[in-house]
From TrEMBL:
Domain BAH: 1-131
Superkingdom of this protein's organism: Eukaryota
Protein name: Origin recognition complex subunit 1
Nucleus is among the record's keywords: yes
The family this protein is said to belong to: Belongs to the ORC1 family.
Organism of this sequence: Tetraparma gracilis
PROSITE patterns reported for this sequence: BAH (PS51038)
Subunit structure: ORC is composed of six subunits.
Reported function: Component of the origin recognition complex (ORC) that binds origins of replication. DNA-binding is ATP-dependent, however specific DNA sequences that define origins of replication have not been identified so far. ORC is required to assemble the pre-replication complex necessary to initiate DNA replication.
Length: 610
């Protein structure tokens, strides 16, 4: 349909949905209330005059019109440009691929057999039939990423209907680039990771089902650990979606789910206010006040059962909340009060049950906690091992098959990417990134070849060589070149920081200056190599940090709870937080072929990072 009243443009509707966010503390409106506003996602079609291509001397200007049924019709190019607009923005329908019987009162256009990428500013040949066009549109619609919607859209065709036309090589390559994005690798709605985690998902489901049915009076804490990118959070969310479906079908008692990510909290104590909001309690700005309300909430005794017993029963009106603590490494404080309370409340015989699932990258995190916190975590643990090569290849193939994009990878290309990833980190997100970079390089080469006059059809298959080049390009960045030539003390600093980030599970978090200096001292003493001694003074360390920050090897950030003045002055113990700007495993790979190989081998060994 066309969009806009005064000036209109052509677009394709890819989704229609209601948007009705509820203010805090407000109940859902009654059925008689006015319906929430209706929105649509539009994928725009571009007029050839609006297409901006990269400069190319051999590229002919795109045609404006094409003849059909004895008439000339204006052309439209598909794009990856998607916007959300109110439904009332629709003006009128339009006709694509008109027939002699098409009503002349409706605007009529012809779809060009090209797809225009705004990001790359280039045209790619595509199959212009309606099923293929619809399939491409779904790749860019954010509202269609819900797992239930995706399952319905990807279901096999009904009997008597035809399957979609297979995409061209360029179309499959473009689909692969979209499917292998880091957002796709991190999404919890994709089922590609989960096919290799059947046993782990069954354990999580059994635990949660028993806990919800008992209203939290059974064992109510589970600790899940494993290396980054091993499917921990995706598995938990997948199980919770299934349990929510059972609850909606009245097969399970009612329960709430509260999700907290320790890395997203400004301070560990903010977990109190977020949990209170999640269970529908009164809003509290101060963590202390929120903790007091939660203490009363989870200490409320259930009514006495028949015969005077105070033991809770499923029929006594008991409620239950499932709390998912992701990245719980970040909730560790000096006295570990936050973790103690969050795992102590589930042990109460309360009218309001609490079930906690803690997720961390550090497998031995419980052993690093105080004994009183360890006792509250309980004995239920689930460990996710790093993916094997075969599992990672299966995940990549499953992900690419979601849009018929697996055919654009040569036999062995996915296996090479998987082997390289498993050898370095085991993080499936790394494999996604490698394959995407390889697909991008092939796409760019195909686009360049298609602009050359008389050139043969461009190759759109990702080969093993393309993957090898992608791995090399990803490790041949200026930051890694600087690490290769760093000084002895700079190498000690980088390795100490990388080891701390890996061992604490703070995959994307920051480390304090005092923590880092202590780690550097311990590392230098443990290695016993005099070239790393003595460790730098405070002033020398700060100057080194500034140099490495300017080289973009590190990132110095002011803590969110501190003012710029205190951070700059270092008063009250507030110093910038230090983060790595390069991958830990790239650092290990670079230093293993340098004069600092013993340092990297001792403190960045793979078995120490799991």
């Amino acid at each position: 349909g066309a969009i806009g009243a005064e000036s209109w443009e052509c677009g394709e509707i890819v989704s229609i949905y209601h948007d009705s966010p509820l203010p805090k503390g407000k109940k859902r409106p009654a059925p008689s209330s006015p319906p929430p506003p209706l929105f649509i996602e539009i994928r725009w079609f571009y007029d050839p005059n609006d297409v901006k291509l990269r400069a190319s001397a051999s590229l002919a200007p795109p045609p404006q019109t094409l003849p059909l049924h004895g008439s000339l019709y204006p052309l439209l190019y598909e794009t990856d440009h998607v916007d959300t607009v109110p439904a009332e923005s629709l003006v009128s329908p339009l006709t694509l691929s008109p027939t002699p019987s098409s009503p002349p009162s409706v605007p009529q256009f012809l779809p060009a057999p090209y797809f225009y990428s705004m990001r790359r500013q280039s045209l790619m040949p595509v199959t212009d039939d309606a099923p293929s066009r619809t399939r491409r549109g779904r790749l860019y619609a954010t509202t269609l990423q819900d797992p239930a919607v995706k399952a319905a859209l990807t279901a096999p065709p009904l009997p008597g209907t035809s399957a979609p036309t297979p995409a061209t090589g360029a179309g499959r390559l473009n689909s692969a680039i979209s499917l292998l994005s880091l957002s796709a690798a991190n999404t919890t709605t994709s089922s590609s990771h989960l096919a290799e985690r059947t046993t782990e998902r069954a354990s999580i489901e059994n635990f949660l089902t028993a806990a919800v049915k008992s209203r939290g009076s059974a064992t109510s804490a589970l600790f899940i650990a494993g290396p980054p990118g091993s499917g921990k959070t995706a598995s938990v969310n997948h199980v919770l979606r299934g349990l929510n479906a059972q609850r909606a079908a009245a097969k399970l008692p009612d329960f709430k789910v509260v999700y907290l990510n320790g890395m997203e909290l400004r301070h560990p104590y903010e977990a109190y206010t977020r949990l209170l909001e999640g269970i529908g309690g009164e809003e509290q700005r101060q963590p202390g006040a929120a903790a007091a309300v939660l203490e009363r909430h989870f200490s409320t005794k259930p009514p006495a059962a028949a015969g005077g017993s105070k033991k809770a029963t499923p029929a006594d009106g008991r409620t239950v909340t499932v709390l998912v603590l992701d990245e719980m490494d970040y909730l560790v404080t000096a006295k570990q009060t936050v973790l103690y309370n969050l795992f102590d409340w589930p042990t109460r015989n309360s009218l309001h049950g609490l079930v906690v699932i803690g997720i961390a990258n550090t497998i031995n995190l419980p052993e690093r906690l105080l004994p009183r916190v360890q006792s509250r975590l309980g004995l239920l643990r689930l460990t996710f091992k790093a993916y094997t090569v075969e599992q990672m290849v299966s995940i990549l193939k499953t992900r690419l098959s979601e849009s018929d994009a697996s055919g654009c990878f040569e036999n062995g290309a996915l296996e090479f990417a998987a082997r390289k990833t498993v050898g370095l980190s085991g993080d499936v997100r790394r494999a996604f990134q490698v394959c995407q970079e390889a697909a991008k390089s092939v796409m760019e080469a195909a686009e360049t070849a298609s602009t050359e006059a008389g050139a043969p059809p461009p190759k759109t298959t990702v080969t093993v060589r393309a993957v090898v080049n992608a791995v090399k390009a990803m490790t041949d960045v200026p930051q890694l070149q600087s690490i290769r030539s760093c000084t002895d003390l700079e190498a000690l600093l980088i390795v100490s920081l990388a080891a701390m980030l890996a061992s604490t599970g703070r995959e994307e978090g920051g480390i304090g200056v005092a923590e880092l200096r202590t780690k550097m001292s311990g590392s230098a003493a443990a290695l016993g190599d005099q070239k790393y001694l003595p460790i730098p003074s405070w002033n020398e360390l700060l100057m080194m940090l500034n140099r490495l920050d300017e080289s973009r090897i590190l990132i110095l950030e002011t803590p969110k709870t501190a003012s710029m003045r205190t951070a700059a002055a270092g008063s009250a113990g507030v110093w910038p937080l230090i983060k790595l700007n390069v991958d830990v495993f790239d650092i290990k790979d670079v230093l293993m072929s340098s004069d600092h190989s013993k340092l990297a081998e001792k403190f960045l060994a793979s078995n120490m990072m799991m």
